[in-house]
Design brief:
This protein has 418 residues and is α/β, with parallel strands linked by helices. It has two domains: 167 residues, Alpha-Beta Complex (Aspartate Aminotransferase, domain 1); 239 residues, Type I PLP-dependent aspartate aminotransferase-like (Major domain) (Aspartate Aminotransferase, domain 2), CATH 3.40.640.10. Helices cover 41% and strands 15% of the residues. The strands form three sheets. The protein has a seven-stranded mixed beta sheet. It is globular and about 60 Å long.
Length: 418
């Protein structure tokens, strides 16, 4: 069969809806300055879909630092891979900042967070090693697992007893081999908002020999007394052997980093193919990263405002009887019952009639009959944003429960402005 004919026949589980979703539910175009309110489809909306937790994306000091760095260095410098010709004192300085902040000896910068996680997993384990991982791990972890030629065991989400059971299986599997065990979990799970059981998993090292790799993309800058992430929040910094985060959330940029003991970081520097053979992180982003770290450390009021908004939004939802699961982080999932078509009709109603822009999660990502509207509060949302959103959610829930939304796919072509 022609490979292109096969692609046209089967667009994939999400791509099958491309004709009904493109540029409205999928690949929507938000316009204007990044903030709590942006334009979508020609109108201003309250936006709850950006991971701009601390509001740094449009912070005046950050905008100035980015602009000054771009003017001084351009976007091409350094020209080349880090190992060959793309290193600088600023790259080294930013790595030192990250390592020091999260309590590790050293750190390595990543061109992209997603790419870096995939490549790091591939680099750290060999065919003899076993990976034990949380069932609800992010896609970048799952893609990294696909590259692993050895055995891997999945434990039920945040189930420490099941994690121990899989560790027992892994320990038995590697008996008499040169293999080891790597455990992978997240600091904050981006879909349900749960904190990973990082401290409890780390405590299992008293009984089993393994290393713990934590993806803390949503925890860095938001969790802990000073924003150092899940290790600070759960008082288990030393229990985390390899710490990962991205620039794409609290740091409001592009890139990522991994922090660990110096010998582990040097191993990654000289063996991680996605960094060895890819262009170095642009100087403008590195210098901008230094400014972002300065503000995270010097302006705790940003994190305080984030949590003020988190509590107002989540408490308001609970008081109105909404199910927001067991979240104990800024990630706020609002769980309802309904079919795909009803979920999409509700999103249209929220956007077009209440001017609320949020993300919707439906089957096949979650079970059929379930709808999750995911809200990401930030430091730049206002009390008015929160109140209007609470009122809008109450109204659309009434419509959903009274079957006011037609059980058919909405016609987005009639909605999209030319």
């Amino acid at each position: 069969m022609d490979i292109f004919a096969k692609i046209k026949k089967d667009r994939g589980p999400i791509g099958r809806y491309q004709d009904q979703a493109h540029e409205y539910f999928a690949f929507p175009k938000l316009e204007g300055e990044i903030g709590n309110r942006m334009k979508f489809n020609g109108k201003e909306r309250i936006v709850w879909s950006l991971n701009n937790y601390l509001g740094l994306a449009n912070h005046p000091e950050i905008r100035k630092a980015d602009a000054d760095a771009a003017a001084e260095y351009g976007l091409a410098l350094p020209m080349g891979a880090r190992m060959m010709s793309g290193n600088s004192d600023n790259h080294d300085k930013l790595e030192h900042e990250f390592a020091s902040f999260v309590g590790k000896e050293d750190a390595i910068l990543l061109n992209f967070g997603y790419q870096g996680m995939v490549s790091a997993i591939d680099t750290l384990v060999s065919r003899h090693d076993v990976i034990v991982y949380d069932a609800e791990s992010h896609a970048c972890i799952l893609d990294g697992l696909r590259l692993h030629p050895g055995m891997r065991y999945k434990f039920n989400h945040n189930d420490v007893a099941d994690c121990e059971k899989q560790l027992q299986r892994a320990a038995k599997f590697i008996e008499g081999t040169p293999g080891g065990i790597l455990v992978l979990t997240e600091g904050v799970f981006g879909m349900n908002g749960n904190q990973g059981k990082v401290k409890e998993i780390a405590a299992l090292k008293e009984k089993y020999e393994f290393r713990l790799f934590v993806d803390d993309a949503h925890g860095f800058g938001t969790m802990g007394a000073t924003g150092k992430g899940i290790g600070e929040e759960q008082d288990c910094i030393d229990g985390i052997d390899v710490y990962f985060s991205t620039f794409a959330k609290s740091l409001a940029g592009v890139g990522g980093f991994i922090a660990a003991d110096k010998d582990i970081i040097y191993f990654l520097r000289y063996n991680m193919r996605s960094q060895i053979f890819a262009k170095s992180l642009p100087m403008a982003m590195v210098v901008g990263g230094l400014k972002r770290m300065e503000l995270i450390k010097s302006q705790p009021e940003l994190r305080a405002k984030l949590w003020e908004n988190v509590n107002k939004l989540q408490n308001g939802l609970r008081e109105r009887g909404f199910d927001i699961g067991t979240t104990n982080t800024p990630v706020t999932p609002v769980v309802m019952k309904g079919e795909l078509e009803q979920a999409l009709q509700m999103i249209v109603d929220l956007r077009e009639n209440f001017n609320i822009f949020c993300s919707v999660v439906v089957y096949p990502v979650i079970p059929k009959g379930q709808i999750i509207l995911r809200l990401i509060p930030t430091a730049v949302h206002t009390d008015e944003d929160i109140q209007l959103t609470l009122e809008a959610f109450s109204e659309v829930r009434k419509k959903l429960e009274s079957n006011a939304y037609p059980n058919e796919m909405p016609d987005i072509h009639s909605l999209l402005k030319a």
